[in-house]
Structures are given as C-alpha cells and as structure tokens.
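Supplementary Methods. Inverse-folding protocol.

Structures were first reduced to a discrete structure-token string of length 301. This string, shown here, constituted the complete conditioning input.
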C-alpha cells in the first residue's frame, strides 16, 4: 500500500493530505441544516466532504477523515463517515482513517478487520470501512500492533503509528527518557523494526505519525528511521509551515505526507481566501491546498 501512496504523491507532485474533520462551524451557511438533527448533520457533513473531494481531486493525493468528528453524531455520523470513505476511493484518493485504535487480542483484531480488513459473513468475506491506512496507538505493545500488521499483510493495507505527536502536551510522556533515549525514539525504533516484513523498496507499509511542530525531532527521527514513512500533522492551524518540514523528508524529497485539516476545509473563513465567499468554499479549499503544496515543495526541492 505504501507504494500506491508514494506513486500518488509523485503523480500529483503533492505530499499533502486533506483532513476531513467536519464541524458545524466550518460548514458554509448553505449547508447548515435548517432543522438540526443527528440525521441532518450527518447528511450535511457528507455533502460538505463530497464537494471538497470533487474540488481537490488532483491536488491532494489522500484524505484523512478523523472518525471522532463523525462518532459525535452517532449512527448518522458514522453513516456519513462510511459514505465519505467510499466516495474518496471512488474519486481515487488514498484513504487514511484517523481512528487511533489501540487494544490487544480479539479486540485489536476486530478493529483491524473493521477499518482495514474484511469480515466473514457465512461463505462471503466482505470489507467494512475499507480504508487504505489507519492510525494506531501502540501503548499496549506488540500485541496491539500484530493483528493490524497481519491484516495489512493479507489485504495490502498500511498503518501510521503514533510516535511523536504535534500537540504541546506530547512532551509530558513522549519526551521522557528511558534507556538513555527519549521515549518517542524508542517507539520509533520499534516501528522501524515492526515494518521490516512489510517493506517495499525504500519504505514500509508501517509508518509513523510525527508532528510538524517539532522540526528538530522530525529531522532526528528521519535519520533514525530511514525506512519509515511519516504522516505529519501540525501544518497550518497548529503553526508549522513548509520551512519547518525540510528535515522530515529524505534526500530524494520523499518519505512524508503532510496533513492539513482546518487550514484546507475551513479556508473560506480565512482572510486570505475570503474573496471566494461561502458559496465557493470548495474553490477556497483547493486554492489553500495549492498554496500548501507550493509552500512545502519550495522548501524541499
């Protein structure tokens, strides 16, 4: 699966992923339901996502829906989530399910089957959410990762494991020293090792989440994890820009996909894109993505 992601990035010259994290306050007035209900919000979210994906096809090679934004609205929200994933695949996007699952045994296998694999219905084996990648939390160790890794091998899917996150509070635990190294580095080294059986060319199907808000850490992790592809949150709304990201990429300008959520899907609300207006929110999102692509590429080439 990592080969598919890299090929899409190279084809579009665009190492960016659009985070599809809809919230009512990000919807343009024309999409806000007149009568709010769980069902109407779910329908509005999918309409919003659909227009954004139509606009960004060819600019962003991947989308990353954050499942919590959908779960908040119960079953109607999850229906919107499922429809979003299906439409993204129809449009040719690589789909990264931001689910941050982490458990052991049969529970971990159930998560892996639901988000990446297939379930058995009598004699039929059918996909459920069918994402291409999923984010996972390895706090429970190898037992938590192994069911996901097995599904990745069987179904040609991928993972992004939390290593060094972009939030300010990440230092509370992730920067703690253990065995003479910061914990995030020990976790990263485990990810590099776990990824060996699923390596295709330079990179493995098992990647790492590394926050853009820690440029020096990102550069150090790139050196320490030469075969681990990075999913990088923290661009834009959290303060990082293209100049902060140069050290995350390898010498060929590969190895990274950078996420922006609010900065793209909420671009119509930002002063620099206000000329598009609420009705042209999807065009504003495309322009924001194009500007992001230029900002990143100009700093890594």
């Amino acid at each position: 699966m990592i080969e598919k992601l890299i090929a899409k990035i190279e084809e579009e010259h665009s190492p960016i992923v659009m985070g599809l994290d809809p919230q009512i306050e990000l919807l343009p007035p024309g999409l806000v339901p007149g009568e709010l209900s769980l069902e109407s919000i779910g329908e509005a979210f999918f309409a919003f996502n659909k227009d954004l994906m139509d606009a960004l096809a060819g600019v962003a090679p991947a989308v990353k829906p954050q499942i919590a934004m959908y779960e908040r609205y119960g079953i109607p929200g999850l229906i919107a989530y499922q429809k979003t994933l299906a439409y993204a695949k129809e449009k040719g996007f690589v789909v990264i399910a931001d689910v941050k699952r982490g458990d052991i045994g049969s529970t971990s296998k159930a998560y892996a089957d639901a988000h990446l694999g297939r379930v058995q219905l009598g004699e039929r084996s059918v996909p459920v959410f069918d994402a291409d990648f999923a984010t996972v939390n390895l706090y429970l160790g190898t037992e938590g990762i192994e069911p996901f890794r097995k599904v990745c091998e069987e179904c040609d899917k991928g993972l992004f494991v939390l290593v060094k996150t972009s939030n300010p509070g990440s230092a509370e635990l992730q920067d703690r020293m253990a065995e003479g190294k910061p914990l995030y580095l020990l976790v990263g080294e485990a990810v590099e090792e776990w990824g060996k059986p699923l390596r295709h060319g330079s990179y493995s199907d098992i990647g790492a989440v590394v926050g853009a808000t820690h440029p020096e850490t990102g550069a150090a992790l790139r050196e320490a994890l030469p075969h681990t592809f990075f999913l990088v949150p923290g661009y834009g709304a959290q303060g990082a820009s293209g100049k902060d990201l140069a050290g995350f990429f390898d010498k060929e300008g590969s190895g990274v996909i950078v996420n922006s959520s609010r900065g793209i899907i909420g671009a119509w609300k930002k002063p620099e894109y206000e000329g598009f207006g609420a009705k042209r929110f999807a065009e504003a999102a495309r322009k924001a993505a194009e500007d992001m692509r230029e900002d990143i590429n100009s700093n890594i080439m």
